[in-house]
Task: inverse folding
């Protein structure tokens, strides 16, 4: 029986240290962590690794349920997958575990609250962006590709593959930039 910790933050500028310290204090022998959105399981390789290695009697420990996921159905599916392996899920704050029936009910409610909170966050973000647009201060997201450089290289006769390497993007992105210019 192993206690396996899982920590997650949504963005690279957020800090995992508090979660890691709590998981260590709970006696987790193994702790996996990642910096990725909890909106879905896509790209969450550390979570997939934890789930793949859970054995009967093991316990998956997270500091809060929203660290596991922000979609009720996904959280319930994760709990189900743990149970199918004979493993348990324990949330530190508030302390709830799937070892008892009451824990299932509480985790279902907490999963719904996490999903609702995510919707509120997105709604506030949308409202903030709309207000910033009305105030004329919204400039949009930071450009990840130097469009001017792509166009310059294309005018110089450089091929799409070489342009993609030069600006560190995919060929498809190069084609999308060049499409309106042609």
Result:
């Amino acid at each position: 029986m192993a206690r396996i910790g899982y920590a997650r933050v949504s963005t690279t500028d957020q800090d995992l240290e508090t979660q890691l310290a709590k998981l260590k204090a709970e006696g987790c022998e193994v702790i996996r962590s990642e910096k990725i959105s909890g909106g879905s399981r896509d790209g969450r390789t550390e979570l997939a690794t934890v789930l793949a290695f859970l054995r009967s009697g093991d316990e998956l420990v997270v500091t809060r349920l929203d660290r596991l996921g922000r979609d009720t159905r996904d959280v319930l599916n994760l709990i189900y997958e743990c149970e199918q392996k004979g493993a348990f899920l324990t949330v530190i704050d508030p302390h709830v575990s799937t070892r008892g029936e009451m824990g299932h009910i509480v985790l279902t409610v907490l999963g719904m609250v996490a999903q609702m909170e995510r919707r509120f966050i997105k709604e506030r973000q949308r409202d903030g962006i709309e207000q910033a647009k009305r105030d004329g201060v919204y400039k949009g997201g930071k450009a990840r590709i130097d469009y001017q450089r792509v166009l310059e290289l294309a005018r110089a006769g450089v091929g799409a593959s070489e342009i993609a390497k030069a600006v560190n993007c995919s060929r498809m992105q190069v084609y999308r930039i060049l499409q309106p210019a042609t």
The two ends are 62 Å apart (CA to CA).
